[in-house]
Design goal:
The complex is a heterodimer of chains A (106) and B (497).
Chain A (H helix, E strand, L loop, with lengths): L2 H18 L2 E2 H9 L6 H13 L3 E6 L7 E6 L1 H30 L1
Antiparallel strand pairs in A: 1-3, 2-3
Helix pairs in contact in A: 1-3, 1-4, 2-3
Chain B lengths: L2 H11 L5 H21 L4 H7 L3 H11 L10 H4 L5 H32 L16 H42 L5 H9 L3 H7 L1 H27 L4 H6 L4 E7 L7 E9 L1 E7 L4 E7 L6 E5 L4 E5 L10 H8 L4 E7 L4 E10 L2 E17 L2 E8 L3 E7 L2 E8 L2 E8 L2 E7 L2 E8 L2 E6 L6 E10 L2 E6 L1 E8 L4 E4 L9 E6 L4 E3 L4
Parallel strand pairs in B: 2-6, 2-8, 3-7, 3-9, 8-9, 9-10, 9-11, 10-12, 11-13, 12-14, 13-15, 14-16, 15-17, 16-18, 17-19, 18-20, 19-21, 20-22
Antiparallel strand pairs in B: 1-4, 4-7, 5-6
Helix pairs in contact in B: 1-2, 1-4, 2-3, 6-7, 7-8, 7-10, 9-10
The chains are: A alpha+beta (106), B alpha/beta (497).
């Protein structure tokens, strides 16, 4: 899959993963990398961006096995943004599909 | 690669990012290492092998921030905005100005602080018996010391400010990273600021300074201008005079031997029948006079004081003329020996006939006028000049000083040895009548040698940094030997050998 395509939707994917449950950075990466090949180093700056825009907040969670991890939790603003992005994506997907098919069947 | 090295290289790669973002990104990787080692039981190296290289990560991260590393200036290029002219200016300033200016200012303030120790000398003013003047003087000096303390602090603060200015200038000239942070930190270093931030300190300082100025004004007025004129009373400190009379029973030669500390000594003839000695002083200093009638010797001694602490007596002494011993003798009295030793003071000998004259003065001058001498004469001074006028000897004269001149006028000696380090040697009319001088050996390091009508057969004149002049009116007088040497001076004269 083209990296350029992936980058465009990465924010949406990350927000979706956070919506499922509160996760830590590496967890989010592992979740996504099961489905698409992606560099860890592109995920972290996106997480930073999301935090900065106030779409999610972080908290430290103690663990019995090791040092505490930084967890990400969606904010209300983040949930709204996710909803918006999802609609955007569906529209976009439809338009792109239309255009791709149009070319093929003409 | 270890975790530490990995994170270090990553941090370097992310140098372009601002500090917070960089910290956050590195935070993710630190956590990533924790996940790998603590939760999954891998080694640091294994975690590193899972990850991309720090450089690749840095590139990707920067790209996510919209920075394309390909189009970023290299590190050196980033310093291109450093103005080389300014850097050269700073370097020149460092070498030619900062190198002496800063140590100078700092040492001035330190010296002032150190001088505060002399306050110890002020304290005795109010210990024990003391007058109201002592109290005023104590308050006056104490206030002075307080002000001095604040002046020292002000100068120290000035030097700190100067150093700060120069450091900031350097930081700016070299366009150092994070310099704003450093400049901000530096701006907090200041004694003046410390006083300003602490209310009590500020209050205390104001009180002390105002109090000192008021004290100096008040006590100073009383000390100098008040009705009682306390300082004036110190200036006119009462001198006392002790008098001693020594009968002369038979016509014998007398000797005077002195061993004195701080006093002028004058020996002169009068119309008297006895020897009269007056001692005028502000501080007796255990002065002792011993008259030995059988050996016809008068011995004057004084306790030689060690270097003592600054005391009120010293101040008084500066205002007064010091002590003095005057020895008046009958005109016809002959001296066998005059042996004078003085630490601080002048020695003055007039109109006398002496077999042996020895004078040793440390700080002061020796003045010999109209004296008849028999055996060898020795005059020595450390700081001061030697003057010999209208004096005749059938033997040699040995005169030495370190810092001072040697002046001889209308004098007859057999042989002369004259030495000074920093001073002139001026000889006028030596052995004029009989033209019978045998040898003259004059030497000075820093000073001129000036001879006028000196009729001595064998003359040796040496100076390092001075000129030599030698003129005689009687051109028929031919020297046996004339040896003149000067290193940095010239020789002028009309005498021949």
């Amino acid at each position: 899959m083209s990296t350029q395509l992936k980058k465009g939707v990465l924010e949406l994917v990350v927000l979706s993963k956070m919506e499922e449950k509160n996760r830590y950075g590496y967890d989010i990466y592992q979740e996504i990398s099961q489905h698409m090949i992606i560099s860890e180093s592109t995920i972290y700056p996106i997480l930073r961006k999301i935090v900065k825009e106030g779409l999610c907040e972080t908290y430290l969670k103690e663990s019995t096995e090791g040092p505490p991890r930084k967890y990400f939790r969606l904010t209300k603003k983040g949930k709204e943004k996710l909803l918006f992005l999802r609609q955007d994506w569906l529209k976009f997907q439809r338009v792109v599909n239309l255009m791709i098919r149009g070319e093929k069947y003409e | 690669m270890s975790k530490k090295e990995f994170l270090q290289r990553l941090s370097q790669g992310l140098d372009l990012l601002d500090e917070v973002e960089k910290r956050e990104i590195i935070g993710f990787y630190e956590e990533r290492f924790h996940s790998g080692t603590a939760y999954e039981g891998k080694t640091e190296e294994e975690v590193v092998s899972e990850l991309e290289s720090p450089e690749t990560i840095a590139r990707n991260v920067l790209e996510e921030y919209g920075i394309n590393p390909k189009f970023i200036k290299t590190k050196e290029q980033r310093y291109n905005n450093v103005d080389s002219g300014q850097v050269i200016g700073v370097a020149l300033f460092d070498v030619f100005v900062a190198s002496w200016l800063l140590p100078a200012v700092v040492s001035i303030s330190f010296a002032l602080f150190a001088s505060l120790i002399s306050y110890v000398g002020v304290v005795p003013l109010i210990i024990g018996e003391h007058t109201i003047a002592d109290q005023y003087l104590f308050a006056f000096l104490t206030a002075g010391y307080v002000l001095l303390f604040f002046i020292a602090i002000a100068i120290l603060d000035l030097s700190i400010g100067l150093i700060k200015k120069i450091v900031v200038w350097h930081l700016n000239a070299f366009k150092l990273k994070n310099r704003e942070k450093w400049i901000k930190k530096l701006s907090k270093v200041s004694i003046d600021r410390m006083c300003k931030t602490s209310g009590t300190m500020k209050f205390l300082r104001s009180i002390l300074i105002i109090g000192s100025i008021v004290t100096i004004g008040y006590t100073g007025y009383h000390l100098f201008f008040g009705e009682q004129q306390y300082f004036a009373s110190y200036a006119n400190i009462q001198k006392e005079t002790d008098e001693y009379y020594t009968e002369i029973t038979d016509v014998e030669k007398w000797s005077i031997i002195t061993n004195l500390d701080s006093v002028d000594v004058e020996i002169k003839p009068t119309q008297r029948e006895d020897i009269y000695i007056s001692h005028t002083y502000t501080d007796n200093q255990d002065f002792e006079i011993d008259v030995d009638q059988t050996n016809h010797t008068i011995t004057l001694t004084q306790e030689i004081s060690m270097v003592n602490f600054f005391s009120i007596q010293d101040i008084a002494w500066w205002f007064s003329d010091g002590s003095e011993i005057v020895i008046e003798v009958p005109e016809e009295l002959l001296f066998e020996t005059i042996d004078v030793s003085i630490i601080n003071g002048d020695f003055d000998l007039e109109d006398a006939s002496v077999d042996t004259l020895i004078a040793d003065v440390m700080n002061g001058k020796i003045m010999i006028t109209n004296v008849m001498l028999d055996t060898d004469t020795i005059l020595e001074v450390t700081n001061g000049s030697i003057y010999v006028y209208d004096t005749v000897s059938v033997n040699s004269g040995d005169m030495k000083t370190v810092n001072g001149n040697i002046v001889l006028k209308n004098v007859v000696f057999d042989a002369y040895v004259l030495r000074t380090e920093n001073g002139k040697i001026m000889l006028d009319e030596l052995n004029v009548d009989l033209q019978d001088g045998l040898t003259l050996d004059a030497k000075t390091t820093n000073g001129a040698i000036d001879l006028n009508n000196v009729y001595v057969a064998d003359v040796l004149l040496r100076t390092t940094n001075g000129s030599v002049d030698y003129f005689n009116e009687d051109h028929t007088f031919i020297l046996d030997d004339l040896d003149v040497s000067t290193v940095n001076g010239s020789y002028e004269g009309n005498v021949e050998d």
